[in-house]
Design goal:
With about 550 residues, the chain is of the alpha/beta class. The protein has 16 helices and 11 strands. A hairpin with an 8-residue loop joins strand 2 and strand 3. Helix 2 runs antiparallel to helix 3, helix 3 packs across helix 5 and helix 4 runs antiparallel to helix 5.
């Protein structure tokens, strides 16, 4: 018969192991202000909220990398890979804090709230006031983006080991069960954060305010969990320091939230000058207009890229539209072109009976119709009774379009190096476009700059050929403002990078870029200059390039 043993003295090794399992709690016995079941629920709820906040920070940095430097797969991959690497390092580093898990977790959450909440504003400020996004990753603001990714990842990685220690102190259980509970709360929280960012925070609050609010939630929940549930694990000094740190973080975040509108206006002026007239966020992108009054040229920026420059737009749109209008032109399809400027040039040609415009952003179309300067520039083309505008993704729209419906298709789309536009420069997309062309129809494609990005430009040509079309390339030189830029940011950067626009004219039979003698005479283009532009483009030809497809995009980012 086994004799019952007397209880071990309080504070002995045996009493700690009875209360917390083998190894004890590495400190004094834990006394919760609530029942064990309630304590475990509160810790898991804290894991849920912190995981949601952590994923919002990750997505915020990815969105900033895409917005500020061009949305390429490479940049997104760099941000995510740095963060995942840092999370592993943070988890290892947190092992040394397990003896002080409550204080360590509270400190980590306060730091994470400050870094994650302010990251968007800090990066946007550096971008706006320095504009130094050239060079290698180690230079300027690019290094700051990597530093924020690294720091955020370190702090997120440190959460799980500390939370594991805290939940085990409440009630010791097998490691597999504890990991399963924490992982479930963590993954569900990540799901909520991942859905909240694009569908709630970004459209309703924007990048800057959304990050600040997320940081405030992170600080409140992390601080409340430690100070409310594990306060007896902390010394009086530690409690005071943690309260002071969280109050300071919340004051900083609240102050930034109050000043965010003034900050955005100042940042816009720093980037675009003091002549910003319209700045709005549509369901698709940020739209900004400068100039257009008192003789100043109008500029239209979409997500920071200069898409219409008043000094350059006529040369661009005449070169885009007029060579394709030589021949049958009763039915015309314009892909993109929600600003109405390509439509303006199409309507100058006699015999045009119908123009269908497929534009993904209804906000741009509204602006092109209602803004006095932009509507005057496009000659109110979108209000012409022959014009019909559809708000849709061009790829999806073409899949349902009738065959052989158009004599001319004008593809006035962003540069293919932008990730979101790559599918609109794929073999599959051009196959759909070929299907809607009449037997004698022509397709013209803006393919980006010829001299500075020849591989991208000639990949467009190779992709059109792979779709069963014959092609002829030409360019328009004399570019001044970097208009219709690719992944490079803003007017200043692109003005130095790009001095021309490249176009590809495609048809079932070999096309020849020329002007229609029965059509209007362009103001910036002649038959001789067009022939010279064909020869200039041909001199840059890069041969042997494979076509770009949906599953194997070939364009640079």
């Amino acid at each position: 018969m086994i004799e019952p043993q007397a209880p071990a003295p309080p504070g002995s090794t045996q009493s700690r192991e009875d209360a917390y399992g083998p190894g004890g709690d590495h400190g004094s016995p834990l006394c919760l202000p609530v029942r064990q079941g309630t304590g475990r629920f509160l810790v898991l709820a804290g894991v849920f909220v912190c995981a949601a906040c952590g994923l919002v920070y990750e997505l915020e940095l990815v969105a900033l990398a895409a917005y500020l430097m061009g949305d390429s797969v490479a940049q997104t991959s760099v941000v995510l890979s740095v963060m995942v690497f840092a999370m592993g390092i943070g988890s290892l580093a947190a092992k040394g804090l397990r003896r002080h898990a409550a204080a360590g977790f509270g400190t980590v959450e306060a730091a994470l709230a400050l870094v994650g909440g302010c990251s968007a504003m800090a990066l946007y400020a550096v971008f706006a006031w320095t504009g130094d996004w050239g060079g290698v990753w180690a230079n300027g603001p690019r290094a700051l983006l990597v530093a924020f990714s690294l720091t955020t990842g370190l702090l997120i990685g440190a959460e799980v080991p500390l939370l594991m220690e805290l939940i085990q102190r409440i009630r010791r259980q097998d490691a597999g069960g504890a990991v399963a509970d924490l992982s479930a709360a963590d993954y569900v929280g990540a799901l909520v954060g991942g859905l909240a960012f694009p569908f709630l925070l970004l459209p309703l609050l924007g990048q800057l305010t959304g990050a600040l609010i997320t940081g405030a939630v992170n600080a409140v929940v992390g601080g409340a969990l430690v100070l409310g549930l594990f306060r007896r694990d902390l010394t009086v000094r530690a409690r005071r320091l943690l309260v002071g740190a969280n109050v300071c973080v919340l004051v900083v975040l609240a102050s930034a939230a109050v000043l965010v509108d003034d900050f955005e206006r100042a940042a816009r002026h720093a980037m675009y000058g003091s002549d910003v007239r319209v700045a709005l966020r549509t369901d698709v992108q940020e739209v900004l207009l400068t100039g257009g009054r008192d003789g100043r040229p109008l500029n239209l920026f979409l997500d920071g890229r200069l898409r219409v420059a008043g000094r350059d737009e006529l040369r661009y749109h005449e070169a885009l539209v007029h060579p394709a209008m030589h021949g049958p032109r009763g039915r015309v399809l314009v892909l993109g072109g929600g600003d109405g400027l390509a439509v303006r040039e199409v309507l100058r040609h006699p015999g045009v009976r119908r123009v269908d415009v497929v534009e993904i952003d209804a906000g741009v179309v509204r602006l092109a119709r209602r803004d006095p300067a932009l509507s005057a520039l496009n000659a109110h083309a979108l209000d012409d009774p022959r014009v019909r505008v559809a708000t849709a993704d061009a790829f999806d729209w073409l899949r349902g379009a009738p065959p052989a419906a158009y004599d001319v298709v004008v593809s006035d789309l962003p540069h293919p190096g932008i990730t979101a536009s790559t599918k609109l420069y794929s073999q599959e997309f051009y196959g759909l476009t070929r299907r809607v062309l009449a037997p004698a129809g022509r397709l013209v494609v803006h393919g980006g700059a010829v001299e500075s990005r020849p591989r991208d430009f000639w990949t467009v040509d190779a992709t059109l050929r792979a779709a069963g079309l014959r092609t002829a390339a030409y360019r328009a030189s004399g570019r001044r403002d970097g208009f219709a830029a690719g992944p490079d940011r803003g007017a200043v950067a692109t003005a130095h990078a790009h001095r021309d626009w490249g176009f590809v004219l495609a048809a079932r039979n070999a096309p020849v870029p020329r002007l229609d003698p029965s059509g209007p005479r362009p103001r910036t283009l002649t038959d001789s200059s067009l022939a010279a532009d064909v020869r200039a483009a041909e001199r840059t030809r890069v041969t042997g390039l494979p076509p770009s497809t949906l599953v194997h995009p070939r364009y640079g980012g």
